[in-house]
Write a structure and sequence with these properties.
The protein has 147 residues and is an alpha+beta fold. Helices cover 32% and strands 42% of the residues. It has a seven-stranded antiparallel beta sheet with strand order 1-7-6-5-4-3-2, with helices on one face.
Length: 147
């Protein structure tokens, strides 16, 4: 199993952070890991992404699995039986009127996860970490413009 978790305090209201996470058409302006994304905020809906993994650029479609407005956005890959599964979560919690705790979670599991993880862990770590920092920067920038 590969589990990547990144936590950030964001100086922005929770609704601003949620808007950045779910503003899929704007990803190309701030998100270097997933510069293109299209999804509906509805469980079962597809989420189609362009992802930069190191030097590779891949297009993948996964499935939205859970949406709790201003709290949780989760999607999952189509499982390959017991062999390989993954999920990705954006978790946000208001810690004050202009403060939000953001947690990025990615979990890859199943029988093949040690092999896939070994091949991709470096690029996945770098990408999710970078995206988390870029999300923080974008949300704080948007919040500053609202004041």
């Amino acid at each position: 199993m590969l589990k990547l978790v990144y936590d950030h305090h964001i100086t922005a209201p929770v609704d601003v952070v949620w808007e950045v996470i779910t503003g899929f058409s704007d990803y190309g302006e701030w998100n270097s890991f997933t510069p293109a994304c299209d999804a509906e905020l509805q469980p079962g809906a597809p989420i189609t992404m362009t992802v930069k993994l190191g030097r590779r650029v891949i297009r993948q479609t996964e499935s939205v699995s859970e949406v709790v407005p201003q709290s949780l956005f989760e999607y999952r890959m189509k499982p390959l039986g017991p062999f390989l599964r993954s999920y990705r979560q954006h978790r946000i919690t208001a810690t004050g009127p202009n403060d939000t705790q953001y947690q990025s979670v990615f979990v890859l599991y199943g029988w093949l996860s040690p092999i896939v993880g070994a091949l991709m862990a470096k690029d996945l770590r770098a990408g999710f970490e970078r995206m988390s920092r870029e999300l923080k920067k974008r949300a704080e920038s948007v919040a500053t413009k609202l004041v």
